Amino acid sequence: MAATKKKTPETAPWQWTIHEAADQLRQKKISSVELTQAHFERIRAVDSSVKAFLTLLEDSALAEARNADEKIAKGGNLSPLTGIPLGIKDVVVTKGIRTTAGSRFLEHFIPPYDATVMTKLRSSGAVFLGKLNMDEFAMGSSTENSAYGPTHNPWDLTRVPGGSSGGSSACVAAGEAMGSLGSDTGGSIRQPAALTNTVGLKPTYGRVSRFGLIAFASSLDQIGPFARDARDCAYLLETIAGYDPHDSTSVNVPVPNYAAELTGDIKDMKIGLPKEYFVDGAEPGVTKAVEEAIAVYKKLGAKFVDISLPHTKYGLPCYYIIAPAEASANLSRYDGIKYGLSLHETAKDLEDVYKSTRAEGFGPEVRRRIMIGAYALSSGYYDAFYKRAQQVRTLIKKDFDDAFGKCDIILTPTSPTTAFKIGDRTSDPYSMYLADLFTIPANLAGICGISIPGGFSEGLPVGVQLLGNTFAESDILRAADAFERVTDFHTQMADLSASAVKPKRKKSS
Amino acid sequence: MATDTLTAVQQEYEIVIGLEVHTQLLTDSKMFCSCNTHYANDEANTHICPVCMGMPGVLPVINKQAVDFTFMVGLALNCSIPELAKFDRKNYFYPDLPKGYQISQYDMPFCVNGSLEITVNGAIKKIGVTRAHLEEDTGRLVHSANNWGEGYSLVDWNRAGIPLLEIVSEPDMRSPEEARLYMQKLRSILVNLGVSSGKMEEGSLRCDANISLRKHGETKLGVKTEIKNMNSFRAVQRALEYEAQRQMEVLSNGGVIVQETRGWVETRGVTVSQRVKEYADDYRYFPEPDLPHIEVARNWVEGIRSQMPELPDARRDRFIRDYALPIGDAELLAGDRAIAHYFEDTTAALQGDDIAGRARLAANWVMGDLSRLLNASETEISNCPISAPHLAALIDAVTQGKITGKQAKDILERAYQTHESPDAIIQREGIASVSDTAAIEAFVQEAVTTNPKAVADYQKGKGNAVQFLIGQVMRLSKGSAKPDVVQPILIAALDKLAQ
After folding, report:
1. Helix, strand or coil for residue B352?
2. Which of A84, B145, B303, B488 is the most buried (most CB within 10 A)?
3. Amino acid A58: pLDDT
4. For B61, which of A93, A246, A325 is closest by C-beta distance?
5. Whether B287 and B319 share a structural domain
6. Of B241, B272, B304, which closes a domain?
7. Are residues B269 and B292 in the same domain?
8. pLDDT tens across A125-135, in order?
């Protein structure tokens, strides 16, 4: 599939991919200011229905766009992200810009520093449109746990966009941003990507610095990109990845030129199909889409091998001990003493400052997980819960080690279902937790994963998950890109106009 | 508390004491961020950053210098240094704790199974050191009141994140005195290593004590209380003496000891209950996920070991071996590196072949008159106005009979005040002028022997003969002898001749 001569796409700028826009910017067919303005127009047109943004940064974005245009005018060595309008999940701290983590607690919190990923994106010349809605402190799978109201799925506004990075997925799906950053602790990038027909990548644990990522579960959290194709994800990832002396869990492994490795050639790539992911749980429409994806990969010359990840069924319970345990400590800093919400003026005494502030500041799901986590760490229960969960985690990690001895990447559904209705699962936390059944094991094992558009079921997007070994992002990106070259699911965008017809984005290569 | 009351306790009960000592480490930056540690007299909240403030999104980075210092202390306390260590989170809420948890070490500390030797009544006693682990200090609460008298508290985070080393002893101490000696020895080691300023009164060195009583012969430990807020070595001993007596009174009245934390109130000389521990605190420790485990390579530890300065115990043993000092003197002189150096410099500068004799003289002067002068003026020996060679010259002058010991003490004190060298005083004023009776006696003898006529005149009752002989002594002393000092010595000598 030879690259054709780039020409101006026949679609609106907000429908372009990042690499299409980068070409147009370099050819001076459009300026970053125009591109940025086009996105704010799109946001004004649709965000009252989608509700992806918590904070808009129009003035600073246009200033950044002007800087980018100057950079582009000077020429020289430009980043693919120079002048590209992006959205940032509101769990990534931004210097001088309100960062809420979707919580009432941080409604007025202005961080005094930038996350490392922000520093990296700023130096690439990217443009920041605003901060994106999310489940409070990244706890949830639907963005309904945001203190600021749910985000709506652009494919069906009555449905959830997934979560916790629902703002990040929805804004890319709705054409409100060309790409975005999310965070993935148990599936919070991949599951919303699957539910919104976007590409979402969770990097290997340690690939991207967590410095400035408001912590949910420190041993599981990773920042990663959302975009409309694998190439865009590759550009975003190679910009934000890398060792950071401020994050002792980041790993000093060189960052490849991911985009350069998108050769389209996956001939003889061995793809593992874990039997535990295909037995039950998934909707028929999801299963069908995944089967069709397997067929596509076979045509591309990939070899399929049956593998087993025997401890898969323990993933969910294991995760729901470890993540809340870490969260219970990570969220202790929100105590009404230093920053954020404080009810000290009405509190009776110190203990009441803590109790009333935390009761007021945290939503029910956050409170639930703090209680679960504190319980799991309590003296007398630690061995039975936290310690046991860590032992199981080791087994899950070993499952993947063994599996990657037999295959290069692993293919599974991303989510057992397509986007569900807003309100459907809020009263049953466990049904909500099941949304992450297929994504959680990758976080426990610390490996990388990507969700790519794999088709539609009853008009709703279905995601296919590709899992790679640690630091094997190149493999899953190459496989994702190869799939995109012969399918057009990823080029479909949600139609937010009155008509239900979904316009196709023209493929550029 | 009177010592006899303590004796009464010890007749009936065995006192069991274990200490938990915290010291701030003298690193350049804080434990997990790059903030400067020299906050002592600075305005509140001027040495802070998002990391030590516990802002959302921050991550800790381990200060290697703090770990190096920890290994130094561990090696000095004869600890094993395990090959794998980790940090843990200790969870509790308090306004001075920015993150709602303290990064500490729970079950895999840097140093384990060590010991420390104290000298009790001239005998060495070994106190077990359970562990030494690294953690971060908290902020400081400043309590205040508004114009209406309502109390409020402010938090100063300058101290938050200062590296803190906790050293936990075995319950091996059997008297409040032993506890004080342990603290003093531990401080001496920490200060010698250059890792701690060792200032209990300023809180850079802190001590919590666990104390319980049990009947002699009993092997099970009694219920303990934890004593806090002891801000000096003396306070450690006094507080534990008080507490031992208090516990005995409770027990002998048929009561039971309540496991609790008690605070020492220095002004009243008592401990008061602060908090009753009905059950053990549940800090919900778990491994710090933001920090990887630390693999401690052996060459790391050996590198630290090779850079260690000589430690008090080794120096004490060397002083006993090389200078034949008694153990008490050796312990005292070896405890402080600066004092030890001064002592050794003085010994080296003294004349004579008998090294033990020289050392004994140097030790006596350093521990005696010089220490008294230093203490009285609250001066560190490193700032002593009299150098070790000058002290040695003064001691030599005594040994050589040029001046008496009493004169030397007088000269030392004057030299200390005026910052002159003792030699300069001797040179300027002459020996006799300083009422050196030995020298004057020599001149008197000479005057009497060489002037038989004047002696005979005196014996005949001629009063002006005395004036003549005084003049002769004055001449012999080159005018430096004082007549009023010479006269009684002369008359005594003349009267002795007459017998």
Report:
1. coil
2. A84
3. 98
4. A246
5. no
6. B304
7. yes
8. 999 999 999 99
With an 8 Å Cβ cutoff, are A332 and B93 in contact? Answer: yes
Domain that holds residue B121: 3-304
**What's the rounded Cα separation, in Å, for the pair A484 and A466?**
13
Q: How far is A378 from chain B (nearest CA, A)?
A: 5
Pairing of strands A448-457, A199-202: antiparallel
Residue B371: CB partners within 8 Å, gap ≥ 6? Answer: none
The reply to whether residue B56 touches residue A214, judged by beta carbons under 8 angstroms, is yes
Residue A224 confidence (pLDDT) above 60 = yes
Mutate to test the interface with B, among A243, A332, A357 (most CBs of B within 10 A): A332
Residue A172 C-alpha, separation from nearest chain B C-alpha, in angstroms: 25
Characterize B88-127 residue by residue with b for buried, 16 or more Cβ atoms within 10 angstroms of its Cβ, and e for exposed.
bbbbeeebbbbbbbbbbbbebbbbbebebbbbeeeeebeb
- Please tell me the distance in Å from B202's CA to the nearest CA on chain A: 26
Q: Domain count for chain B, please give it.
A: 3
Across the interface, of A210, A212, A332, the residue whose CB is closest to B101 is A332
Can you tell me the distance from the alpha carbon of A331 to that of A127, in angstroms, rounded to the nearest whole number?
31
Dmax (CA) of chain A: 71
Q: Same domain for B356 and B248?
A: no
Chain A: residue whose CA lies nearest to B99: A333
Going by C-beta distance under 8 Å and a sequence separation of 6 or more, which residues neighbour residue B390? B415, B421, B422, B423
- Per-residue pLDDT of B431-484, as tens digits, reads 545 456 777 888 888 888 888 888 888 888 887 888 888 888 877 876 667 677
Nearest to B468 by CA among B482, B480, B457, B481: B457
Q: Which residues of A are catalytic?
A: 89, 164, 188
Whether B258 and B194 map to the same domain: the answer is: yes
pLDDT tens by residue, A268-320: 999 999 999 987 778 999 999 999 999 999 999 999 999 999 999 999 999 99
Q: Look at chain A and count its residues.
A: 509
Asked if B93 and A335 come within 8 Å (Cβ–Cβ), the reply is: yes
Q: Are residues B235 and B372 in the same domain?
A: no
Predicted pLDDT of residue B465: 85
DSSP A322: H
B59 in contact with A, Cβ within 8 Å = yes
CA B202/CA B210 separation, integer angstroms: 22
Contact A248 B60 (CB under 8 A): yes
In angstroms, the CA A477 to CA A488 distance is: 17
Closest CA to A438 of A273, A185, A191, A160: A191
The shortest C-alpha distance from A429 to chain B (Å) reads 25
- Nearest CB neighbour to B101, from listed A92, A329, A386: A329
| Cβ distance of B98 and A333 shorter than 8 Å | yes
**Domains, chain A:** 13-313+391-491 (3.90.1300.10), 314-390 (no CATH)
Mean pLDDT score, B97-104: 98
